[in-house]
């Protein structure tokens, strides 16, 4: 385990230079993670409709998913004004501003009416939340009947040897000093599988499954 107790991570990110740096790195290195998420979405049978991306950061995931699933439209939200601005700029740069709509928004109060979303994704954001329960309940509120969700984040109970290897790789890639401890801080702030499962059992989310892969945890519709 990375740490016995969670060490919360400061958020939202307001450093504009660091935000731009994360955006550049995401464009360069996120192709494979995007393919993994697209494969999970397709496995759930979602090919079209309205999707919500919670904690979109620089917007790289909805951009990649929208390219692979041309009948999907996205609302992408982030609590950070700096991140939301970068994401909006990226959607224009990629020519997808007509299908990906970016705005500020909180995971605790999703800016949508009840039962309107076909898909909710939340990637590398859960560890920023003090309590995921209200967020899980918000997902249940905005999903259409039969709607799907894919949540992926780090896990604090990852094998420490694996975490150290991934952290070394991260530090090799991230040359910006302010970003070099980012992965380790996120791991320390993340939830364990057991913690997430306990919270999910208390939530209004319909049929779900939770599983681990390397230093990640995944929560998906069934």
Cα radius of gyration in angstroms: 16 Å
- Strand arrangement within the widest β-sheet reads 3-2-1-4-5-7-6
Architecture (CATH level 2) name: 3-Layer(aba) Sandwich
Q: What is the percent of helical residues?
A: 40-55%
Distance between the termini: 28 Å
Number of strand segments: 7
**Count, helices:** 8
Structural class from helices and strands?
alpha/beta
Low-confidence regions: none
SSE pattern: HHEHEHEEHEHHHEE
* CATH superfamily label: Vaccinia Virus protein VP39
Give the mean pLDDT: 95
> What kind of sheet is the major sheet?
7 strands, mixed
Number of domains: 1
Find the CATH topology.
Rossmann fold
In CATH's first tier, which class applies?
A: Alpha Beta
Shape: globular
Strand content: 15-25%
What keyword list fits this structure?
222 residues; alpha/beta; Rossmann fold; seven-stranded mixed beta sheet; 7 strands
Please tell me about this protein's structure.
With 222 residues, the protein is an alpha/beta fold. The chain has a single domain, classed as Vaccinia Virus protein VP39 (Rossmann fold). It is 41% helix and 23% strand. It is built from eight helices and seven strands. It has a seven-stranded mixed sheet, sandwiched between helices. Helix 4 (81-93) links the parallel strand 2 (71-78) and strand 3. The protein is globular, with a radius of gyration of 16 Å. The two termini are 28 Å apart.
Write the topology of this structure.
Layout: H1 16-29, H2 31-43, E1 48-54, H3 60-68, E2 71-78, H4 81-93, E3 100-104, E4 117-123, H5 132-142, E5 143-154, H6 160-173, H7 182-189, H8 193-202, E6 208-213, E7 216-221
Parallel strand pairs: 1-2, 1-4, 2-3, 4-5
Antiparallel strand pairs: 5-7, 6-7
